[in-house]
UniProtKB/TrEMBL annotation:
Residue stretches in coiled coil: none
Organism name: Deinococcus antarcticus
Name of the protein in question: LysR family transcriptional regulator
Domain of life: Bacteria
PANTHER family (alphabetical): HCA OPERON TRANSCRIPTIONAL ACTIVATOR HCAR, TRANSCRIPTIONAL DUAL REGULATOR HCAR-RELATED
Phylogenetic lineage: Bacteria, Thermotogati, Deinococcota, Deinococci, Deinococcales
Pfam families per record: HTH_1, LysR_substrate
Keyword Transcription recorded: yes
UniProtKB keywords: DNA-binding, Transcription, Transcription regulation
Similarity comment: Belongs to the LysR transcriptional regulatory family.
Length: 300
């Protein structure tokens, strides 16, 4: 059964005249008549009563009209949904992100994306960079947000924004009285930090920076989450070197200070090259770049 046969039947049922129905669907009258006859043969029962004046539906035809309209409406919705999918307007997007981005960048991107693409379901998953790379290879997420570097050649990446490191200090710390610090000012301080196996790129970059200033940070306490580390700073356990956008997380007893010549951390979106043509991923990347460009999170 072809959709055109259903369209011809609905037109005939509504016009009640072969000539007018044929004009409506842009076919000659004989073609419309043959279409209706073929439809009746396929259904196996008469659908219309033909008279010299008008066309009437049989009881079977009246029931068939209900289903024909529903089928045509469903077909139209299906076609439109496919077109929306091609534009990245429907579907599902699984996004991995490193924990710190929840405090800067990610909320703005997600909020804007949901406003622009309300028919795309966004599934957020907090994962380390290593876990994201594995999830992308295993098709468990569609796009990741992490820190450079991305070493897997099967993954593509796009820089979204770059942020310098700052220092988080106990509010009563003597160094908190300074407006700007040098990394050498921290050589005698105790540090709190992530375990290296969870944030290897971040950890190594900080260690190299401190080493260039002639010291190795004395890490006295490790913690997995940023809020926990900042709570340790507030308690006077040590100082912490977060990325600048973490300073959005206001915590009593903690102050943030810029550091001269601080290294810059680059945050990137990462996806599998195999799925690079996915229109939903393309839409996400476009929104992410636009949002970051319009925020104080833009590239430094």
């Amino acid at each position: 059964m072809e959709l055109r046969h259903l369209r011809h039947f609905v037109a005939l049922a509504e016009e009640e005249h072969f000539g007018r129905a044929a004009e409506r669907v842009f076919v000659v009258q004989q073609a419309l008549s043959n279409s209706i006859r073929n439809l009746e043969e396929e259904v196996g029962v008469p659908l219309v009563l033909r008279t010299t004046r008008r066309v009437q539906l049989t009881p079977a035809g009246q029931e068939f009209l209900i289903g024909a309209r529903e089928t045509l409406a469903l077909a139209a919705r299906t076609v439109e949904r496919a077109r929306q999918a091609a534009r990245g307007e429907v579907g599902r997007l699984r996004v991995g992100f490193v924990s710190g981005l929840a405090f800067g960048g990610l909320p703005e991107i997600v909020r804007t994306f949901r406003e622009l693409y309300p028919n795309v379901s966004v599934d957020l998953r907090e994962l380390t960079a290593h876990e994201q790379e594995a999830a992308l290879r295993g098709d468990l997420i569609d796009v990741g947000l992490m820190l450079l570097p991305v070493r897997d050649p099967s993954l593509a990446s796009r820089s979204l924004w770059r942020q310098p490191l700052v220092v988080a200090l106990p509010a009563q710390h003597p160094l908190a009285r300074k407006r700007k610090l040098k990394i050498g000012d921290l050589r005698d301080e105790d540090f709190v930090f992530f375990p290296r196996h969870l944030r290897a790129t971040y950890f190594d970059q900080v260690m190299r920076w401190c080493d260039s200033a002639g010291f190795t940070p004395h890490v006295v306490q490790e913690a997995i989450e940023v809020p926990t580390l900042l709570s340790l700073v507030a308690a006077g356990v040590g100082v912490f070197l977060p990325i600048q956008f973490f300073s959005r997380l206001s915590l009593p007893g903690v102050v943030y200070r810029p550091i001269g010549d601080a290294p810059v951390v680059e945050i990137v979106a990462v996806w599998s090259r195999q799925h690079g043509s996915n229109p939903v991923i393309k839409a996400w990347l476009a929104v992410a770049q636009d949002v970051i460009a319009g925020q104080d999170l833009a590239l430094v």
